[in-house]
Amino acid sequence: MIVVATAVALALGAGYWAGTRHGAPAGGEAERGTPAAQAPGSGRQILYYRNPMGLPDTSPVPKKDSMGMDYIPVYADDRPTDEGVVAVSPARVQTLGVKTVLAGLRPLDAALRASGRVEVDERAQVVIAPRFEGWIERLHVSAVGDPVRRGQPLFTVYSPDLQSAGDELRIAERLQRDSAASDPVAGEAAQRLAEATRARLRNLEVAGQGAARQTFHAPADGVVLEKNAVQGARFMPGEALFRIADLSRVWVIAEVFEHDLGRVEVGQQASVTLDAFPGRRFEAKVAYLYPTLNAATRSTPVRLELDNRDGLLRPGMFAQVELAGGGGARLTVPTSAVIDDGDRQVVLVALGEGRFKPQAVRLGERGREFVEVLEGLAEGERVVVSANFLIDSESRLKAALSNLGDAEEAAAERYGAAGSFEAYDAAAGSVTLSHGEIPALQWPAMTMDFGLAAPGLIEGLAPGTPVRFEFEQRAPGEFVVTRIERAEPDGHHGH
């Protein structure tokens, strides 16, 4: 009796196991339990749920697809892969001479450079142009470039106009004296004539009582830049005979391109270098930013003022201007840390233990030694500043080999299962198969449609025939049977 009872119990247990094993495809799938991540006490945070067939579809809550399959949870603590990371042995790091620095906040020496020329200070120029006609009788300064002092004689002229005005003044003054007592009316007229003549001489800027010969003096210290006066030559009213400029202070006019205008302001410090004095810098300040733009060169003139008491700077000299960059501390790395291939800018982040990862960055302003990093790095990250090209080359080789390996793995990504052949749709080129669980894809036992690589694969199969088959995933949601064969009747339960 004990043997019989034991046999009955085993038979009932086997029947219960078979029913739970094969009952799911018949309609029990919709009643399956929630995913494991939803079980009490899991302690893992779920970010979202992804489609089990690899389709680009996610859900914030648990759900099933059209075939009753549970969406797969994606956890917050899933660790990313070390894709692109290259490992270098400590010995090789020492051999390559790898050096690293920390990305940090520092003032950026983002100097703005422009070309310019030395010019005369327009406010320190004077022109000597007599307001009357005459002849130059004598030159006291006879050459361009001669230095002159304020009050120094320049040239002496003779003018018939001045002689006539002087005679007229003397006659009016004598008539005024002679008729002051005998004829008040004539005396008053002579007085008005004398005053008018004096005013005329003052307007002609003539010294004295209208002498026919006048000597012109330098109105300021400076250098003779132009001299049109020739001894014995006649000159006309308003003709510029001398131009004198004070060169103790000069201008540098620099052309700043349109896209750099926002970095220039009045009072900004600058330094000037000249080909004539290599290695020497002249300090200057931005005095004026001109309000016009040259449409041909897309640049605007900027005026800088320089002290030139030693006379080294000469008008017309070519100059290189460097304007100091402003702004506070910015996240920067040394310029040697950046690998720029024209399409992207990359730095190598040192992860420790000989591991380095290429990191794309977006750069801002560049200085002499450092460059601003706008995106891609955080303060305190360590970057490679020497031997980075060698490490980057090794990293790219690894990435290429990794991509090759991924392609080979993708080409060989096939799955096997056991089940039964149900139907074939010639129009759609698909086959309906029932199969057991496929753990590699987290699929439960079900009946579903597959693509068929070739119609000849199912030749001789009738609905209900137990089969073993292989299939591959060619695209998200696209699974194609590449091999199928008959199986023993009990093979229907395998996988």
UniProtKB/TrEMBL annotation:
InterPro entries in the record: Beta-barrel_RND_2, BSH_CusB, CusF_Ec, CusF_sf, CzcB_C, MFP_Cation_Efflux, RND_pump_MFP
Molecular-function GO term, any one: transition metal ion binding
Gene Ontology process terms (BP): copper ion export; plasma membrane copper ion transport
Residue ranges of coiled coil: none
GO cellular component, one term: membrane
Residues covered by the CusB-like beta-barrel domain: 249-325
Keyword Membrane: no
Pfam families per record: Beta-barrel_RND_2, BSH_CusB, CusF_Ec, CzcB_C
Glycoprotein as UniProt keyword: no
Domain CusB-like barrel-sandwich hybrid: 126-245
Taxonomic source organism: Pseudothauera rhizosphaerae
Keywords: Ion transport, Signal, Transport
Ranges for domain CzcB-like C-terminal circularly permuted SH3-like: 331-391
Family in the record: Belongs to the membrane fusion protein (MFP) (TC 8.A.1) family.
Domain of life: Bacteria
NCBIfam families, per database record: RND_mfp
Name of protein: Efflux RND transporter periplasmic adaptor subunit
